[in-house]
Design a protein that fits this description.
The chain has a seven-stranded parallel sheet with strand order 3-2-1-4-5-6-7, sandwiched between helices. It has nine helices and seven strands. With 246 residues, the protein is of the alpha/beta class. Helix 1 crosses helix 9, helix 3 runs parallel beside helix 4 and helix 4 packs parallel to helix 6. It is 48% helix and 15% strand. Bound molecules: NADP nicotinamide-adenine-dinucleotide phosphate.
């Protein structure tokens, strides 16, 4: 049987890279999406292939653009002929208090985080429906459920992802496509490296496990929902946040 295929948006660093590695560990072929030149893709390829004998298709695509997403999914299907798991992970922050937030900061975050998830999902669903099999995992955030001062754009995008996830889960369940969200708390990546030590300390104080999470800890939850271990969970939000939200 052909190997299963997993596409991860924003998969060349942070949580996305850890997710890609987890699927590689379990024998999936990878489609790794990226948009900037921030990461040395050769190094990423070497790092994954050193440990796991799989193939990787890197696709540059901006998830805010429907046509780029269409081309990315077409390229993946051309190469592998199937699409088993899609992880909508690409995301950005542009933090500001509402009083100071520019309209473009609000729009940029919604466009990448929420509309990007819509674009990619819309492109892969027809293939998954034909296969009568698929798993989609959308990366939300604790902030999408609890809110956070200074992140109204980000919180709105991540709350939107939860509503989107539940709606699509209902639309495609009859075709054996399971759609879930994972809501990380604070995870050590480039996104949180920019926070000051004082902010990090105040974050630790709010987490029952008293530390930030690791990307690999999120990846394990994403893998569970995306793998064949999951046959009967759909439309759910799995929180991976050290107990921040109970
Ligand atoms: P990160 O290290 O900043 O990485 C962000 C990723 O998103 C990068 O791979 C980036 O691609 C990609 N990306 C950004 N804009 C894109 C676009 N327009 N098109 C395609 N890809 C794009 O972030 P992270 O911490 O790993 O976060 C990953 C996801 O988890 C995000 O959705 C984030 O909101 C969510 N999350 C993170 C935390 C946390 O504490 N870190 C907590 C909750 C939720 P390039 O590498 O090409 O730039």
């Amino acid at each position: 049987m052909d190997k299963k295929v997993c596409l991860v948006t924003g998969g060349s660093r942070g949580i996305g890279k850890a997710v890609a590695k987890k699927f590689a560990e379990n024998g999936y072929q990878l489609v790794i999406n990226y948009v900037s030149e921030k990461t040395d893709l050769k190094k990423v390829e070497e790092e994954i292939k050193r440990d796991y004998p799989i193939e990787i298709l890197f696709v540059k695509a901006d998830v805010t653009d429907m046509e780029s997403c269409e081309n990315m999914v077409k390229a993946a299907i051309e190469k592998w002929g199937r699409m088993d798991v899609v992880v909508n992970n690409a995301g950005i922050t542009k933090d500001n208090l509402l009083m100071r937030m520019k309209e473009e900061e609000f729009d940029q975050v919604i466009n990448v985080n929420l509309k990007g998830t819509f674009h990619v999902t819309k492109q892969v669903i027809p293939y998954m429906m034909k296969q009568r099999h698929g798993r989609i995992i959308n990366i939300s955030s604790v902030v999408g459920v609890a809110g956070n001062a200074g992140q109204c754009n980000y919180a709105a995008s991540k709350a939107g992802i939860i509503g989107f996830t539940k709606s699509i889960a209902k639309e495609v369940a009859s075709r054996n496509i399971l759609v879930n969200a994972v809501a990380p708390g604070f995870i050590r990546t480039d996104m949180t490296d920019v926070l000051s030590d004082a902010v990090k300390e105040s974050i630790h104080a709010q987490i029952p496990l008293k530390r930030m999470g690791e990307a690999e800890e999120v990846a394990k939850a994403v893998y569970f929902l995306g793998s064949e271990e999951n046959q009967y969970i759909t439309g759910q939000v799995l929180h991976v946040d050290g107990g921040m939200l109970m």
